[in-house]
Design goal:
Keywords: Hydrolase, Membrane, Metal-binding, Metalloprotease, Protease, Transmembrane, Transmembrane helix, Zinc. With about 475 residues, the protein is α+β, with helices and mostly antiparallel strands. The chain is built from 14 helices and 16 strands. The protein has three domains: about 170 residues, no CATH class; about 100 residues, Roll (Pdz3 Domain), CATH 2.30.42.10; about 80 residues, PDZ domain (Pdz3 Domain), CATH 2.30.42.10. Helix 3 packs antiparallel against helix 11, helix 3 packs across helix 12 and helix 13 packs across helix 14. The longest helix has 30 residues.
Length: about 475
């Protein structure tokens, strides 16, 4: 049933985004007194329609749910001879170049406005998310060598305040594209700190980071992750568990392995995985008593490797959370900034992919979007609305690219018309459309290929 939930969430997302985009075109066309013949959600054959308003605009639902369009009175499609003389002043091509620019750009602008609106609502309401507190950092990692430590709370990146993990990761991704040094402000609580901790400034070198590597997950590249609870508590046992046979009980707390203190659950799992069929001495706390038990992890296959396993269920402690919230004015300003930053980041990534400085693996298609739509819708309304905002920005940016058949392609034509004082010849426009269509088909093929690699493990292993 998950695939059905994903499909429904995807269709709802797409319906919202396409409706807003096309309504942008529609409303500005009406403001410019251009006659709108049809407003369609979906492409292809019309399966339902109703005519409304003094212009009897046809509001339609078409059979293919991918996309939509606004059909205006246009002599290029209908022929000027088939348009009544009284209607010609309302024909699209009769409008000034500035009106045509306004109508075409209104679709992407509507997507940006939707993102700003959604983010504003979310920031006013308050968005709960993990605090930007760092997990244990390998001593060989870039972050550790730069001076970051377990439990550090990130408060600012390059002078910009950070309120949560998502914002921290986002600002680090932006810094990674810049490929320079990044200054982090950290609140550190240790044995020498006064009440509330001490502030530390740490410079992280990012010149080694290449957005082709590690699928651009800059935090993994640096050796950073979310801090976890230090409590490692047994919740239950799976069949034939060596831990149960050794005498461990539900509620036992694992303190050390081979006299090495454990930092969190992940640390414990990594130690067990690294020691298949090797006896391990565990320091166990049961209520007020501490004692040592020897346990031998069984060997099992995982992702083509032999790993150790105790076949236990561990209690998952909740992450330390914070609420990112602002008053309406601050929320609006924060939303505009986030929409702008996301748009610029998207353009930079596209530029890096075109120049070969970023992997084409980052191109995603409808299968991946549907998967994320389903996941976020199951997580909750706040996460789902955040997802819609991100995709709305992506749709706006994509449509502004100067590719013929997209809004950006028409804006390029009209910009040339402004510079030259005359419209581009129809022959050049037709050639541009064919080239643009070919380019879009190539992008779609790459996106579908990437979707298959991501979502079907067999293909993923095949390509690794």
């Amino acid at each position: 049933m998950i695939w059905l939930q994903n499909a429904l969430a995807f269709l709802v997302t797409l319906g919202i985004l396409v409706s807003i985009h096309e309504f942008g075109h529609y409303i500005v066309a009406r403001w410019c007194n251009v006659k709108v013949l049809r407003f369609s959600l979906g492409m292809g054959k019309v399966i339902y329609s109703k005519r409304l308003g003094k212009d009897q605009t046809e509001w339609a639902i078409s059979i293919l749910p991918l996309g939509g369009y606004v059909k205006m009175l246009d002599a290029r499609e209908m022929g000027a001879e088939n348009i009544a003389a009284s209607e010609l002043p309302r024909e699209f091509c009769q409008q000034s170049v500035w009106k045509r620019i306004a109508i075409v750009s209104a679709g992407p602008i509507a997507n940006f406005l939707l993102a700003i609106f959604l983010y504003t609502i979310l920031f006013v309401h308050g968005v709960p998310e993990p605090a930007a507190k760092l997990r244990v950092i390998p001593d060989t990692s870039i972050a550790y060598q730069a001076g970051l430590r377990y439990g550090d709370l990130i408060t600012a990146v390059n002078g910009q305040q950070v309120q949560g993990w998502t914002e921290f990761r986002w600002k680090m991704m932006q810094a990674g594209l810049a490929e320079g040094n990044t200054l982090l402000e950290v609140l550190r609580i240790d044995g020498t700190a006064q009440e509330g901790g001490k502030n530390v400034s740490i410079e992280i070198p990012l010149k080694q980071f290449n957005s082709k590597d590690a699928d651009s997950d800059i935090l993994n590249f640096l050796g950073l992750n979310l801090a976890r609870s230090r409590e490692i508590i047994l919740k239950g046992f799976l069949p034939e568990s060596p831990a149960f046979l050794a005498g461990l009980q539900v509620g036992d707390r694992i303190v050390e392995v081979e006299q090495k203190p454990l930092l969190d659950v992940i640390d414990f799992v990594q130690v067990v995985n690294a020691n298949p069929s090797k006896p391990l001495k565990l320091l166990v706390q049961r209520r007020q008593e501490k004692f040592v038990l020897e346990v031998t992890p069984v060997s099992q296959e995982s992702n083509g490797k032999t790993v150790g396993a105790l076949r236990v269920e561990l209690q998952v402690a909740p992450l330390e959370m914070t609420v990112v919230q602002a008053n309406p004015l601050q929320a609006f300003a924060k939303s505009v900034e986030k929409t702008w930053d996301t748009s610029i980041f998207s353009l930079k990534m596209i530029g890096k992919m075109l120049t070969g400085n970023a992997s084409l693996k980052h191109v995603t298609g409808p299968l991946t979007i549907a998967d994320y739509a389903g996941q976020t819708s199951r997580t909750g309304l706040i996460t789902y609305l955040s997802f819609i905002a991100v995709i709305s920005i992506s749709l706006g940016v994509m449509n502004l690219l100067p590719i013929p058949v997209l809004d950006g392609g028409y804006l390029l034509y009209y910009s040339l018309e402004v510079l030259t004082g005359k419209p581009l010849h129809d022959r050049y426009i037709e050639v541009g459309k064919q080239a643009g269509l070919f380019l879009l088909l190539m992008m779609m093929a790459i996106a579908f290929f990437n979707d298959i690699v991501r979502l079907i493990p067999y293909f993923g292993r095949l390509m690794s």
